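Protein folding task:
====================
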Amino acid sequence: MRKEKGMKRLSDYIWGNKVPYLCAVAALLIAVTLDMLAPRLTAHVVDDVIVGGNMGELKYLLLGFLGIGVGRCVFQYIKEYTFDRIGSKIASMMRRDLFVHIQSLSADFFDRTNTGELMSRVKEDVDHIWDALSFVGMLIIEVIYHTGIILACMYMLNWKLALIPTVAMIFCGTIAIVMERKLGGVYEEISEENAVLNTVAEENLAGVRTVKAFAREKFEITKFLSHNQRYYELNMTQSKVFVKYYPYFSVVTKVLPLLTILVGGKFVIAGEMSLGEMTAFVEYSSNIVWPMEMLGWLTNSFSSAVASNKKIRKIYQETPSIRESEKPVLIENMQGKICFDHVSFHKADMHEILHDISFTLESGKTLGIMGATGAGKTSIVQLLQRMYDVTDGAIYVDDVDVKELSLEQLRTNISYVMQDVFLFSDTINENIKLGKKKLIDFNTVRKASTDAQASEFIERMERQYDTVIGERGVGLSGGQKQRISIARALSKHDPILVLDDSTSALDMETEHLIQETLQNLQDTTKIIIAHRISAVRNADEILVLENGSIAERGTHESLLAKKGLYYETYLAQYGDFLEGKEA
């Protein structure tokens, strides 16, 4: 598979930490090698001391055992600490790079990808790879070297007797390969279902108030339990595969030492090997047991890491659909002039959302946009910010095509009050400073809050601007959240200000005060999207959208005179008042 730009393979991370990895592997090899020397000393104890009666050699052999023990402690510590440190470092780097890559993707990726799935990739899948690169990876290397050096020692002692553990290892290796292939597919399904389960839980917890308001607890519990049951069944499938094959490893590990003693005893009686050599051989056969026992578990963990790596690679294969120009134009002092030139837009596999939209909004002027739900009002702002690219036509800011500007300059010069207010679980002060935290001081925050009619309720709180609000603004009313969001936009003093139905939760008096604030922003280009006539009536031009096209345009007075859609909306909102006035 072709390596995508910006994508790092596991080998890249390992190669970047090759020096500590080599040190860890060297420590591992030394520790295992020392471990293999112990049976040799045991053979000398049996042959030279116990059988031969050479007691003078015993103290040197005991010192040898002590040296092996101390050496193994030192190198085992170095090995495990280094592997854990490298694994943690690489996992941290992987999680960082994956998160940065996800942040670089365009809005269309998030349109088709669930939050729960991304959470699973960033957390659980990286953890599985972390496990494989540290503890599991260390054990795999240790098992391979341990097994190889033990077999070499066994063949040096007696090649005939060494055939028994060789056959046992081949048998266990074959079982491990078969089990890994069966577990690979199961782990991919488990990973997918884990993502779905996370998505269901995340959506339910985020919308728990809606769930309770509509008494949908039983329905949501049933939906969660159905996915939980599927997750349980997949894990049971994994367990059945593991349980089916693991007994083979257990039988081999129990039978191997017994066979070694029986056959080795015959060789001792026949004089083909000494008692000490057979004792060492039995000790080697006992040491080769644990790698066989570990094969099943290591195969299980390794398969999980392989499946997780495949999932992460799929994320890396996604590329942003919105790309910056290689040499972006830099506007030194953006004025905020906006021009839509015959803009049309549709998303993939969807009907046309906007058709032939054209308007010019001079710097410092105000544009009002009205229309029914789904008419394409918010899409105009998303195209202005290049969340998506136009299908036809072009958009200009200060007479420069937005495709020629850097995304950072474009978006940091647009203050956007979204229809769906999102507040972070942080202080009110930090939420208002969002986007320009290093540039906005407290006086600016307080002034923006006052202009947004938010300071009154903020300063009644015990900790005022240092009050920590809950996730997504939990604990605040809809109107309070909207006012904080407006304060956030006003504090930035950007040349372009966009308000997307941002006063819908406010009372008429508060909305009127905010409208007065907006009218005083003489150097700010304003786009006001609203359903209320009161929000757009003072705009220099008003667009009325219908089915993605401009059905009417003009000032408040000229649109009323046309007695079209705008006039009908006006009557719907002010009809009772007009009738009462006439009466």
User: Anything to note?
Assistant: Residues 10-314 form a domain with the ABC transporter transmembrane region fold fold (CATH 1.20.1560.10). The chain has a mean pLDDT of 78. Strands lie at 338-346, 352-361, 366-371, 392-397, 400-401, 414-417, 496-500, 525-529, 541-546, 549-554. The radius of gyration is 36 Å.
